C-alpha cells in the first residue's frame, strides 16, 4: 500500500470524524435553542411548567434523532 | 451519620467502576499485544455467540476465558438443521480464510488467517460460514438462527416483563379497587403516566385499544435499556442492536397501518386542500406523503439504536482511556487517568439511566402520536373552503 493510498484512507476517517463533530454542533445548537425558549416560557408562566417540559423533551429527542443520522453515517465511514 | 453514608457510597462507586475497568482488559502487567481500543469497544457493542464475562491471566500462557457458551442453531438445505453449543468452536479444529482486502494482507503477510472451525462450519468475526474440502472458508453461509447474546437479552427482558406484569395483574384481581401496595403501586404509577400523559392526549377517543401495545413497547425498551447498563453480566446490548430496534419500529408501523381510518388514506393518496396539479398527472403529493409515512418507522428505529449504542460506546471509551494512557505513558499515567475516567464513567452511566427512560418514553410517545394521526377524523369544512378560494 503506497503512501498515497494510506493518506487517502486516513483522509476518509479524518473527514468522518470532522463530520461527526459538525453533526454534534448542530445537535448542540438545536437543543440549546429548545432549552432556551423552554426556560423563558417557564419563567413567564410557571404553572405551565409541566407541559412545557414534556414538549421540550419531545422536541429535543427529535432534534437528537436528526443528529444521530449524521453520526451513524460518519461512524460507518470511520469504521470501514 | 451522613458523612459515613457518603463515605460508603463513594467507596462503593469506586470499587464498582474499578471492577468494570478490570473486566475490560483482565489485569496482568505484561500484556503481549497492544491494547486495541477499537476492537475492544466493538466487541462489547456487537452481538456474540457466547457470553464472555472476563479473561483471566490475559497475555500469559494460561489465559482462560470465563464465558457462557450459547446454543448455535444453523439451517441449510444441504445439511439440514445443526444444533450445537458455541463452546465447540473453541476446540482444535481450524479453517483458513483468504483475504479480500489489502489491509489484512498487509498485517498478516501473505499467510491465510486462521479461524475456529467445527464440523464444516467456521466462525469469522461472529459470522458462520461453510468450509469447503480444502479447509478454506467459503462465502456461503447457513441460516443462522442461534441464540446469541442479544437474543438471550430479549428473552431475559421478556421473562422479566411477563413475570412483573402477571404479578401486578393478579394483585389487581385479588384486591380489586383497594389501594395498591408494593410492586403493583410502582407499576401503576408508570401505567397511569403512560395513559394520562402519552396515550390520552395523543390519541384522544378510543385510546384504550392502543394501551397494551404502548405499555408493552415502553416497558420492553426500558427493561432492555437497563439490562445493557448492568456491568459484569457479560454486556448485553439489546436495544442497541439495529435489528431489535427495527422490529419495534416495524411493529409500530404495522399497528399504524392496520388501524388507519379513511382520512389517513385520503391524506396519503389524495391530499385534500392541495391544488389538483400536484396530484395529477404526476402524483407529487403522493410521493411526499409516502416518504413521510415510510420515514417515520425508520427514524424511530435509528433514534433508539443510535442513542443506546452511542451511550455504550462513550462509557467504554472512557474506560479504554485508562488503558490507552497506561500503555503510552506508563502505568502511573494509567492510574492517574483512571481517577478522571472513573468519574466520567460514573457520570455517563447515570446519564445513560436518564437516556434509557427518555428513549423508552419518546418511542412510546411518538408511537402514540402516529396512532393518533391514523385514527383521527377531522371536519372537512376547512379543506373544502380552502379549495373554493
Outline of the structure:
The complex is a heterodimer of chains A (80) and B (389). Chain A is an all-alpha fold and 80 residues long.
Report on the structure:
With 80 residues, chain A is mostly helical. Chain A has helices spanning 3-44, 49-78. In chain A, helix 1 runs antiparallel to helix 2. By secondary structure, chain B is α+β, with helices and mostly antiparallel strands. Helix content of chain B is 59%, strand content 12%. Chain B contains eleven helices and nine strands. In chain B, the strands form three sheets. Chain B has a four-stranded antiparallel beta sheet with strand order 5-6-7-8, with no helix packed on it. Chain B is globular. The model of chain B is unreliable at 22-31 (pLDDT under 50).
Biggest interface and its residues per chain? Answer: A-B, 12 and 18 residues
Choose one word for the global shape of chain B: globular
- Total domain count of chain B: 2
CATH class of chain A: Mainly Alpha
Radius of gyration of chain B: 26 Å
Q: What radius of gyration of chain A results from the CA coordinates?
A: 19 Å
Q: Give the % helix of chain B.
A: 55-70%
- The percent of residues in helical segments of chain A reads over 70%
User: Would you list the SSEs of chain B in sequence order as H and E?
Assistant: HHEEEEEHEEEEHHHHHHHH
Beta percentage of chain A is: under 5%
Please give a handful of descriptors for the protein shown.
heterodimer; A: 80 residues; mainly alpha; F1FO ATP Synthase; 2 helices; 90% helix; B: 389 residues; alpha+beta; 4-stranded antiparallel β-sheet; 3-stranded antiparallel β-sheet; 59% helix
List strands and helices in order, with pairings.
The complex is a heterodimer of chains A (80) and B (389).
Chain A: H1 3-44, H2 49-78
Chain B: H1 2-25, H2 37-45, E1 50-56, E2 64-69, E3 71-76, E4 80-85, E5 94-97, H3 102-108, E6 113-118, E7 121-124, E8 127-130, E9 143-144, H4 149-175, H5 183-203, H6 211-229, H7 242-258, H8 262-269, H9 284-329, H10 331-375, H11 381-388
Antiparallel strand pairs in B: 1-2, 3-4, 3-9, 5-6, 6-7, 7-8
Amino acid at each position: 500500500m503506497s503512501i498515497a493510498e494510506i493518506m487517502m484512507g486516513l483522509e476518509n476517517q479524518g473527514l468522518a470524524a470532522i463530520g461527526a463533530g459538525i453533526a454534534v454542533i448542530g445537535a448542540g445548537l438545536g437543543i440549546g435553542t429548545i432549552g432556551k425558549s423552554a426556560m423563558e416560557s417557564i419563567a413567564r408562566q410557571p404553572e405551565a411548567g409541566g407541559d412545557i417540559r414534556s414538549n421540550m423533551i419531545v422536541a429535543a429527542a427529535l432534534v437528537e434523532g436528526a443528529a444521530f443520522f449524521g453520526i451513524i453515517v460518519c461512524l460507518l465511514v470511520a469504521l470501514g | 451519620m451522613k458523612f459515613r453514608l457518603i463515605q460508603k457510597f463513594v467507596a462503593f462507586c469506586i470499587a464498582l467502576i474499578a471492577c468494570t475497568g478490570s473486566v475490560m482488559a483482565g489485569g496482568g502487567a505484561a500484556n503481549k499485544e497492544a491494547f486495541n481500543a477499537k476492537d475492544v469497544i466493538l466487541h462489547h457493542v456487537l452481538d456474540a455467540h457466547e457470553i464472555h464475562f472476563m479473561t483471566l491471566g490475559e497475555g500469559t500462557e494460561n489465559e482462560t476465558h470465563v464465558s457462557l457458551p450459547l446454543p448455535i442453531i444453523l439451517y441449510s438445505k444441504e445439511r439440514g438443521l445443526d444444533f450445537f453449543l458455541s463452546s465447540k468452536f473453541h476446540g482444535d479444529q481450524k479453517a483458513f480464510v483468504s483475504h479480500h482486502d489489502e489491509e489484512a494482507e498487509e498485517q498478516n503477510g501473505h499467510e491465510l488467517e486462521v479461524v475456529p472451525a467445527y464440523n464444516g462450519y467456521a466462525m469469522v468475526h461472529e459470522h458462520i460460514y461453510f468450509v469447503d474440502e480444502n479447509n478454506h472458508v467459503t462465502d456461503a453461509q447457513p441460516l443462522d438462527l442461534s441464540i446469541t447474546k442479544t437474543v438471550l437479552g430479549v428473552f431475559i427482558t421478556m421473562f422479566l416483563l411477563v413475570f412483573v406484569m402477571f404479578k401486578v395483574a393478579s394483585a389487581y384481581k385479588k384486591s380489586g379497587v383497594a389501594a395498591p401496595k408494593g410492586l403493583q403501586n410502582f407499576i401503576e404509577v408508570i401505567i397511569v403516566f403512560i395513559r394520562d400523559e402519552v396515550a390520552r392526549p395523543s390519541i384522544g377517543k378510543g385510546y384504550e385499544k392502543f394501551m397494551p401495545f404502548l405499555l408493552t413497547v415502553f416497558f420492553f425498551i426500558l427493561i432492555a435499556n437497563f439490562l445493557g447498563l448492568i456491568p459484569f453480566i457479560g454486556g448485553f446490548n439489546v436495544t442497541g442492536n439495529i435489528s431489535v430496534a427495527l422490529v419495534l419500529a416495524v411493529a409500530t408501523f404495522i399497528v399504524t397501518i392496520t388501524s388507519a381510518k379513511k382520512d389517513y388514506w385520503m391524506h396519503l393518496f389524495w391530499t385534500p386542500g392541495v391544488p389538483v396539479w400536484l396530484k395529477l398527472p404526476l402524483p407529487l403529493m403522493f410521493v411526499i406523503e409516502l416518504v413521510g409515512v415510510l420515514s417515520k418507522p425508520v427514524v424511530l428505529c435509528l433514534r433508539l439504536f443510535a442513542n443506546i449504542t452511542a451511550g455504550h460506546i462513550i462509557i467504554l471509551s472512557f474506560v479504554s482511556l485508562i488503558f490507552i494512557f497506561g500503555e503510552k505513558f506508563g502505568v502511573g499515567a494509567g492510574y492517574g487517568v483512571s481517577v478522571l475516567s472513573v468519574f466520567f464513567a460514573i457520570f455517563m452511566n447515570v446519564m445513560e439511566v436518564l437516556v434509557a427512560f427518555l428513549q423508552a418514553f419518546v418511542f412510546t410517545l411518538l408511537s402514540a402520536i402516529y396512532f393518533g394521526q391514523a385514527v383521527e377524523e377531522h371536519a372537512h369544512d376547512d379543506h373544502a373552503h380552502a379549495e373554493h378560494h
